[in-house]
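Weekly modeling sync, notes
Attendees: S.R. (lead), two postdocs, one rotation student

Agenda item 3: backlog of single-chain predictions. S.R. asked that every request posted to the team notebook include the full sequence so nobody has to chase files. The rotation student volunteered to paste the first one in as an example of the format we agreed on. Action items at the bottom.

Example entry:
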Amino acid sequence: MNVPAWGWYLTIGLLAVTLFVDVFVIARRPHTPSMREVSRHLAFYLLLAVLFGLFVWRTWGGQFAGEFFAGWLTEYSLSIDNLFVFLLIMQSFRVPMKLQQSALMIGIVIAIVLRGIFIALGAVVINAYAWVFYLFGAFLIYTAVKLARGGASDDDEYHENRLLVWVERRFPATKTFSGARLVVVEQGQRLITPMMIVILALGTTDLLFALDSIPAIYGLTKEPFLVLTANIFALMGLRQLYFLIGGLLKRLVYLSIGLSVLLGFIGVKLVMHALHENNLPFLNGGQPIKSVPDIPISVSLGAIVLILGVTTVASLAKSHREARAGV
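Predicted structure, as returned to the notebook:
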């Protein structure tokens, strides 16, 4: 996939402008969005992603378009898992509803920057050490098993990580929010606000999720351009999705199981790809094992759609039965 330098600059520039406008509008007027507003913005981002995928199809062909759509759907589904943690964070810190938009948007911007760094590092490592696909595949399979064992989580409490505990002990903080401000001065003393802690919680949480999502998408495409754009499009709609399906998230009772199957599938795909292009000297003399099939992107895309579809339908069906039974 040959993307000229101006194509990188133009794509990133347009996405950055879109994101900047969104951030600027939110910063100007923090509020609780209506369902109509959220639905309209989410539909815009989804349409934008679909149009971009069609542009990739027209410009570079169906193979790369399939890789983009597979990567985007995977990142979007993993991002939905983020939303449940985001909900717990907002509840734990008692963030006022009108400030949740600001907190989410800043957290998402931090996530985009951090994932951009991970994507660049991943591309460098893959180009230099092709055997890293074995590590990526093993890590995803391990994560899938861990998710499957956890199943549907009943833990409705957010547990602060060590960084947050250290910040809260090290820096004096106010007891109440001061709008979207991160730092205030009271009686000559500079204090951080609860919003600062919330932003750190969201940012560090998204960083941890990136450890799963970046290897997962590199299992679907080796093109950094598609990896970056799929991640940005998935994160750009995350804020709207948070407000639109906040109540629906708890009905997706099989989400963790579905994601474990998805990550496991991509992990196996990565290992099979590594074996197909084997370069480990102690395995088959470093020669590719051609008898191992390399799963095409069309099969991957179909599997992703099937896994997510079955997970959603089964989750909603179970939630509906429990609601009728009064559970």
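Discussion: group reviewed the output briefly. The chain has one domain: 5-325.
Action items: rotation student to repeat for the remaining queue; S.R. to check formatting next week.
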